[in-house]
Amino acid sequence: MPSIEKIIYNEITLPLKGKNLIITGNNGSGKTCFLTEVSNNLRGLKSSFYNDLLRKKLISEIQFGAKNFHSILNFNDIENEFIEELLADARTLSFNELYEFLKFFSNILKNRYQIFKGSNSDLQEKGQIEKIAKINEKLSNNYFYIKEPQHIDNYFNNTNKLINSYINKENNLEIIGNDLNKDMIYYFDAARVSVKDFSFDQFKTYDEYAQEHSITDIEGALEAYLLLNKLALLSLSRSIKINSINNQKIYKLERWFKKVESDLKWIFENNSTKLIFTRTGNKVLIQQDSNFFNFDELSSGFKAIFNIYANLLMRAQIKDLAPESLIGIAIIDEIDVHLHISLQKKVLPFLIKAFPKVQFIVSTHSPFVITSTDNETVVYDISSGDLFEEDLSFYSHDSIIKELFHVNPESNETINISKFIIEFVEKDMHRDNLLEIKNVLDRIEVDLPKLSIESQLQYIVAKNKLAKLSQEGLN
């Protein structure tokens, strides 16, 4: 089955072995960049969006330097001509061609910069610089940069940093997988939930999607497909010709509807959930007991989930596959976006259950997403480089917040109470303070289930000591 066996990123190996992957980390740590690089790598896009940005920035920096600094750095005419020609074609050069140019340019720049720094150190006295500037017209033109060499320093340092970043970027990420091709890569960016409608009237018919093999807004075909196949099922059921071919078609359609209804029951946590159709046959409704609503009336959280679910469902159908048989890699940026905590706990298990042969690679800020999975999921903290291969579903949300997000989830009041209890447990206190201790413990008891395991243990120990001291006071 097509899957990613291993990802090597920044010299860290992520041994997936076909498992799902959750990427977490601080804001700005590069989660989106990582997912985009994975997607581009799998699609065979070696010159990815981020490499292109880096290339443009690098070319712009060298062009600026050639215009302002290369004369004072004494680049000769042959070097300047060579650099000018390559810069003119730099946007279309292959990685290897630009790589060779950058190595050549980097060596020249380093050599010229060292000469400049050595010469300039001999001209530190302002009077000497001005004296030479009056004699040497060329030096006079560059007097400002000799007097203020930090501009040259910045150009050299920035250019070297960009060159190193670009040269090392190509080997920054490597994916080792089985039987992967770009048609099996399904990418969902964080902007996917613009609260789109699922209204039949707003989208093409399913036949148009199928004919075009369209993947743009393919989730919009879901309602159209449901309506189309409901009509087909009714037509077959009423057909005079009942034969093995028709029976097979009926079985396939009924199985598909049952699959979708089963998924809806799971995500809504309501076994009465089922799909029904308006009498006019142009609208799909979801029924739960005596309540009816359409796809457009879903909350933003459910719409966010259905955007992904419907997309994968329609991809399976266009490939004439049962949803359970769809294979590939689904890459989802910020899987928790727009989701209430209750849905954060369910979104990934729901998708894994609905599409068991799809390998999911997702990013999240949510500890509830992380603890919703089992040992078939690997978690990578891109901020620290830590990799978690064990089952994190046994961890409390507090411990996940502390370990992965490096945040203390307890309030200042809770921390102060905890310190007070520890002091009571570890030190001898006058019995006059027992009433105060009792009041504190009574306050804690109200919210005890919400506290961390550590705080609960402190409470139990303190409660036992209070009982013992109180008993001694009575004797």
How would you describe the overall organization of this protein?
Helix content is about 55%, strand content about 10%. It has about 475 residues and is of the alpha/beta class. It has three domains: about 45-170; about 180-405, Rossmann fold, CATH 3.40.50; about 410-475, no CATH class. A hairpin with a 2-residue loop joins strand 1 (about 5-10) and strand 2 (about 10-15). Helix 10 crosses helix 11 (about 245-270).
CATH architecture name of the largest domain = 3-Layer(aba) Sandwich
Integer-rounded radius of gyration: 32 Å
Main sheet: strand order = 5-9-10-3-11-12
Specify the structural class: alpha/beta
Mean pLDDT over all positions: 78
Task: Give the domain tally.
Answer: 3
**What's the total count of β strands?**
12
Q: Roughly how many Å apart are the termini?
A: 74 Å
Q: Identify the CATH class of the largest domain.
A: Alpha Beta
CATH fold naming of the largest domain? Rossmann fold
Topology (elements, then pairings):
Blueprint: E1 3-9, E2 12-14, E3 20-24, H1 31-42, H2 49-68, H3 77-89, H4 95-121, H5 126-135, H6 137-141, H7 143-147, H8 150-169, E4 173-178, E5 185-188, H9 206-212, H10 221-238, H11 244-268, E6 274-277, E7 284-288, E8 291-293, H12 300-318, E9 328-332, H13 341-344, H14 347-354, E10 358-363, H15 367-370, E11 377-381, E12 386-388, H16 397-403, H17 412-426, H18 434-446, H19 453-474
Parallel strand pairs: 3-10, 3-11, 5-9, 9-10
Antiparallel strand pairs: 1-2, 1-4, 6-7, 7-8, 11-12
